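stage 2 :: seqdesign
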């Protein structure tokens, strides 16, 4: 182990440190943090990871230019052999796509009415789907995923599908399978020597690389058809959606040799927005339903607040946020407790440097240990408890700025869709709980355990709930 590195798990060459334990990943990270403090290493395969546990340390690292890049993992280059899009790109390409996307999200109605009304109508459709299962125990329907996909679909292409449309169902299925497969595809990234050990055909078979190529073709077609249609109907003076915005900027920069805008890049950017924005928001919404189902008093208190502010038949808008502090508190407490992205998305050191007094070699992956930060008694009084009240001040006003709260990460790579996600969670929560009540079916319990088998996301386990119509 080179001198000066943070303490932690170094392990063996080629394979790194393989834990021989039945303790879960989160327990192991908590153990490491208790043993080594706020900064520790874990070599996984050939990649050295540094985990950061302290809010200020994460803030410092993720705001420094040498930690803003993503690692070059083949699994993430799934849609295109070249690095494109936003989530995995670096340098000018990342800078241009991030600036473009943030501007689009703002211009397409963040805080204004257009996107809000799309979210409202998707939330109402979901209520209608849930009404169909009132009185009989059933899991949350897949319509929740479709509704969230539809919001992004509208933002990107200006369209919405009906929940029955086979196209959105196929799209959702492929997106889901893709995310599952990406986990497996990462194995050769972490154990690159497998590529020289095993024949290519065997490697492709074990890691399902051919199936992934087929899915890529289908996804690519989804986007390219829409891009072509947008090109045919584009009015440069009236951009309708993100695709129009991109095509206009692509055209304006066509003579600029440094332009990074291209049709191929637009397909990956669109794909990135779906990958980053659908499972995350959908599953956080499911966690909100689960936490409220398991805490009926909290659910009633939130419903009473909603009833006071929103007359029957009206839906919340963003202006209502200040008037619904308890609802905001419930959403934020769920974001903390569920920690959907437990280890964030790794950044990589682009040069040799130091952090927290330790040496960080170029190529080291740097990760915020979000899960342990969200459960640390340094930041949270009784962190195990689900306590929305901790988000309210003595005047009962909601307070956002919380040291130790990093569900969307911080710094230069901070989630580009944070405001959209918060808006969706607010409107879906108010719309659902205004009309419906969620409870545990008689004689059953609802587990808040995490579905193991996905390293990226802490996904809830699918279980039956009882939906009833509120009077
Ligand atoms: C509850 C919902 C969400 C959560 C918990 C979440 C969380 C995160 C996290 C932890 C990151 C990694 C940041 C880093 O690298 O330091 C991220 C990145 C990102 N998110 Fe989100 N996200 C959510 C919803 C969304 C939505 C709705 C969109 C947009 C449609 C979105 C778009 C992105 C993009 C584009 C990135 C990559 C940013 C970059 O690399 O510069 N996210 N998100």
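stage 2 :: out
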């Amino acid at each position: 182990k080179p001198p000066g590195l943070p303490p932690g798990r170094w392990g063996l060459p080629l394979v790194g440190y393989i834990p021989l334990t039945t303790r879960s990943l989160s327990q192991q990270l908590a153990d490491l943090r208790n043993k080594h403090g706020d900064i520790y290493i874990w070599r996984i395969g050939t990649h050295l990871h540094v985990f950061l546990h302290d809010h200020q340390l994460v803030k410092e690292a993720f705001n420094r230019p040498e930690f803003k890049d993503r690692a070059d993992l083949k699994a993430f280059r799934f849609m295109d052999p070249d690095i494109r899009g936003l989530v995995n790109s670096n340098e000018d390409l990342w800078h241009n796509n991030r600036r473009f996307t943030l501007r689009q999200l703002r211009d397409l109605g963040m805080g204004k009415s257009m996107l809000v009304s799309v979210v409202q109508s998707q939330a109402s459709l979901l209520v209608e789907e849930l009404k169909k299962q009132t009185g009989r125990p059933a899991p949350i329907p897949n319509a929740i995923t479709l509704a969230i996909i539809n919001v992004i679909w509208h933002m990107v292409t200006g369209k919405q599908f009906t929940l029955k449309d086979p196209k959105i169902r196929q799209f959702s299925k492929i997106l889901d399978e893709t995310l599952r497969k990406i986990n497996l595809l990462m194995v050769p990234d972490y154990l690159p020597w497998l590529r020289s050990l095993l024949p290519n055909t065997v490697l492709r078979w074990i890691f399902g690389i051919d199936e992934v190529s087929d899915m890529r073709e289908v996804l690519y077609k989804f986007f390219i058809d829409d891009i072509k249609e947008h090109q045919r109907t584009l009015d440069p003076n009236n951009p309708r959606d993100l695709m129009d915005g991109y095509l206009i900027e692509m055209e304006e920069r066509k003579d600029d040799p440094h332009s990074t805008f291209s049709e191929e890049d637009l397909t990956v950017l669109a794909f990135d927005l779906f990958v980053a924005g659908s499972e995350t928001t959908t599953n956080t919404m499911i966690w909100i339903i689960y936490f409220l189902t398991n805490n009926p008093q909290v659910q009633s208190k939130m419903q009473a607040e909603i009833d006071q502010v929103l007359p029957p038949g009206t839906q919340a808008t963003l202006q209502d946020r200040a008037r619904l502090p308890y609802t905001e508190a419930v959403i934020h407490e769920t974001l903390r407790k569920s920690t959907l992205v437990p280890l964030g998305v790794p950044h990589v050191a682009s040069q040799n440097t130091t952090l927290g007094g330790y040496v960080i070699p170029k190529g080291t992956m740097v990760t915020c240990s979000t899960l342990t930060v969200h459960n640390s008694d340094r930041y949270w009084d009784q962190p195990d408890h689900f306590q929305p009240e901790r988000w309210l001040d003595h005047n009962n006003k909601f307070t956002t700025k919380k040291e130790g709260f990093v569900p969307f990460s911080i710094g230069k790579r901070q989630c580009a869709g944070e405001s959209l996600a918060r808006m969706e969670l607010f409107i879906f929560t108010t719309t659902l709980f205004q009309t419906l009540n969620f409870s545990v079916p008689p004689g059953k319990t609802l587990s808040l355990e995490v579905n193991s088998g996905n390293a990226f996301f802490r996904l809830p386990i699918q279980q039956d709930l009882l939906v009833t119509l509120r009077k």
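stage 3 :: structure notes
- The first strand starts at residue 8 and ends at 9.
- The CA atoms of residues 162 and 429 lie 21 Å apart.
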